[in-house]
Records
---
Amino acid sequence: MRLFVACDFSQDTLTKVGAISKELQEKLRGVPIRWVSPDLYHLTLQFLGEVPDVKIRHIAPRLAAVAENFPRIPVRLSGAGCFPSLRNAQTIWLGLDNNPKLRQLAEDLRGALLPLGFEDETRFKPHLTLGRLDRNASDEQKARVAQQVTAIKEFHAEPEYFRELILYQSVLTPSRPVYTALSRFPLKIC
């Protein structure tokens, strides 16, 4: 089973992000981009990959322990960019304001899952993925993407709170991934 741990954004934020994505799609018509459906927007804290069923039961207690040590975390989507860079865009994203509590949550989560063999070597860069460029995109198409992403770099959503950790299953289908929440772990209320 393919799993990841994430936090979800509020419906208000998802609506605003969906409008930004729709506008980008119109402006980037003809550029080979696989756009993420608004119902799939989330913040991935850790990708776990393919996990054998026998190992899944050991994940939940660790996620619950991490969640109960963190109060709700204030977050705000802010800014835009591309991975690995604007000039060589492969992934279009919206970022989050720098938040030490969110970084600590991700670090504690990784520490809790490490004894189970889950290593995540990637540096935590909180973001919401809007779309992914096809590998065959031309330099001219990448330049169009860079221009449009630069135009929304000043984007700021209203602040909100992450209220829970969610263990998701991801099933890849020919048309799009399907995410199913397997378990939810509320952050403590202060």
---
Amino acid sequence: MLVALSDTHSRDGAALSGRTAEAVEAATVLVHAGDFTTEPVLDAFESYGPLYAVYGNNDSPAIRDRIPANLLFEWNDLRIVVVHGHEHTDTALSMLGRQSNADLLVVGHSHKPMFRDGPVPVLNPGSHADPRWNRPAHAELVWDDEIDGARGTLVEPSGTVFERFVVEPRE
């Protein structure tokens, strides 16, 4: 299972609770779209296993020295681009996804969990720890061989699933 998170905004740990903590523990891959805030938070996420992470606009210089502003990686048959998004318009995000030949773009910054389908689908997992005016959330993706793609959900720490989606490799 791939678990995507963003905008932790913590000082001393991953700030995980409920289903979010369970999902992170069970994940084979973690993705974080930035705004850890401090190195101990980044360290906490790294301790859970493979982490694909980018820095956000609220991350310290020490974090910026350790992780990139954007990255591209492959998970099963999907090419996934991750960027915080604070320096990108919707058009720039779309161009980044297309230029990277990505199947999915994971962003953060707004704290608003959402999935938007399109030529390159966009996933914002929201913030599990600092949702501000939005619902707290993270995203879970499970590979499904029957559809040759991933089935995804947006989930609150309470365990409530409030959105389902599918991501398939682009041709």
---
Amino acid sequence: MKKIHNYLKNLFIILLYIIISNTFYSNNKALSNNYFMEKEHLVLDFQNNILWLRCSVGQVWKNNTCEGTAIKLTMDQVNQAKEKAREQLEGDWRLPTRKELESIVCFECGKVKINSKFFPNTPYEPFWTGEKNVWYKNFYWSVNFFTGHTFGRFPGTIPNFVRLVRNR
């Protein structure tokens, strides 16, 4: 009976992984021009109904690109960055949800798994989401733009890159 239980448990895990993977990869078409409209330092995302800052925190929009060096922040520092964005750019800027950040992954793009037309000079490393990993309460979800994969293995005290969004 125990062998059957373990077999069914492993089968369930495999099936769940296949379903999640197929759903994520088949829906990952968000970088088509139909979903985005660029306007200066912003990208309007019609699929998620949000505005993205085109540059990572630490960079500035200048000469139609993101100039400067993106910086890594801890979660405490992210709150300070959001406050600065509110002061300088107006609006309620926040970290993207896991779903929002995953939606801009581009597996067909080159070394950096993000469309550089909309998000130039993006570091190919993990970026924070605003969501905690429910299985590990001190860890947050991040999306890695080198692999395109999502991980929930970083505590908020570890610095990662940041791209801010706000609702439209």
---
Amino acid sequence: MPNVRQMIHLFIAKKLIPAPTPLSVITDPLVQGKNVSLIRYGDGEWAAMLGYDGGNCDGHSYGGGLGDALLDTVRKPVNALYGMQRFAVKNMGRFINGLITKEKISIPWINAEVLQQANMEGELYPLIKILRHRECVVIGPNHIREAVADLFNPAHFIEIPAKNCFEARDSIEKEILLYGEGKSGVIYLFSASMAANVMIHNLFPILGENNSLLDVGSLWDVYGGVKSRSIFSEQDWSEIIQKNRGIIR
């Protein structure tokens, strides 16, 4: 039940609350041989854009120009799906709405947790099945390397710093472009915290027309035994993981 402060945020920013979004918005285009990209905005991204001090729950700093870079991604949207996190609207919706109004941002938001919701409900297998039959590149920290190798065996893994990967964005983008030169139909999966938004935005004009760029966040953490979100610790993942792997139908 939202408290009074949260109810005020939700009321003022109710137009930003995304409708339920099915996993098919991601999987259907991929099955049809089309490309789809996803950029997600949670409380950390909005906090950085609003000029907050500190960092997000993973310890990534809001500083170093991140806020301005993130703001540029919504000022000049690309042809991607843009996810809005309900949690962010509930806790800072009044301020998010003010920023969007000020910047004249008109993005049609979907649910930022579309992948995470399917993951937690044991309904991620349609995506996993696709990834097992497509050329995939994972951009993420070392702790997910073995998990994704076991889950769908990506063609390439680009390791990024576990903290403040935004500072290494130039070198990460160069490595992605080096791998992707002359390729098409590749699915790039970003587990790169708030820097993912910036990198997908920067890379889209070069790679987005012929490839898919997906911000998947902490999606793979539980497969490596890392319960990086408090909500991950609230349930037994053993059967859910089996369902997402396709072992239990």
